[in-house]
Amino acid sequence: MIKIILADDHVVFRQSLSFMLSRNTNAQIIAEASNGRELINILENLDESKEPDVILMDIDMPEIDGIEATKLALKKNPNLKILTLSMFGDEKYYHLMIDAGVRGFVLKNADKAELEAAIKEVAEGGSWFSNDLLRRVIVSFNKQSKADNLLTKRETEVIKLICDGLTGEQIAKKLSLSFDTIRKHRSNLLSKTESTNTAALVMYAIKNKLVAV
Question: What digits encode the pLDDT tens for the residues 91-139?
Fold first, then answer.
């Protein structure tokens, strides 16, 4: 059972989303917040056994917005997995949300299947980016030079496979390398690209045209 906290200031949307997810036997809404301050209060008063597997986080909320709420939540518990609820037009906030530590973005008007897939992927430690959002992100980027001079050939291979959603073990098997070697490459990628997590690596790869969407 995936335990979820939903943070969004639009009551009708929040209730509709809660109802939709409640019909999924593998998901459970354990709390709802109408703004970032409420979310932090919920997290501060939750029993450890009831900590969420995923937080669905709106960006534009009163009192404390999604960017600051993400920072505060992860400061309290770095292991929290946060998935951003996004609308078209939010592209300017994507880097701020990723820098804050979110695991990806899903559109608010996504269908039930995509939303459930995104939640499952993030709950399992992965990242999620709706294809429609990625296309808009690419359009919003200024022309960038490729990162060929920054990354080695092997690092480029690894980051492409990370973008394909492969785990460290899967990448190691595909490239016939040890898991420790892949872990070292990932650490080097995070350092070289100044990324904080896998989601940031994906955005870096897209921005620098290392992968096609």
Answer: 677 778 888 889 888 888 888 888 888 999 899 888 888 877 766 665 5
3-class SS of residue 142: coil
The answer to whether residues 92 and 63 belong to one domain is yes
Number of domains observed in the structure of the chain: 2
Q: 3 near 52, Cβ under 8 Å?
A: yes
Q: Contact 179/172 with Cβ under 8 angstroms?
A: yes
The dihedral region occupied by 165, where left means phi > 0, alpha psi between -120 and 50, and beta the remainder, is: left
Of 96, 112, 140, the position where a domain reaches its end is 140
> Any idea which residue has 């492969």 for tokens?
166
Do 129 and 103 contact (CB within 8 A), yes or no?
no
DSSP H helical ranges for the chain: 11-22, 36-45, 66-76, 94-100, 112-123, 131-140, 153-163, 168-175, 179-192, 198-207
Which one is predicted more confidently, 141 or 45? 45
User: Which structural domain, as residue segments, surrounds residue 66?
Assistant: 2-140
**Are the C-beta atoms of residues 63 and 35 closer than 8 Å to each other?**
yes
Q: Are residues 110 and 160 in the same domain?
A: no
Q: Note whether residue 98 is domain-resident.
A: yes
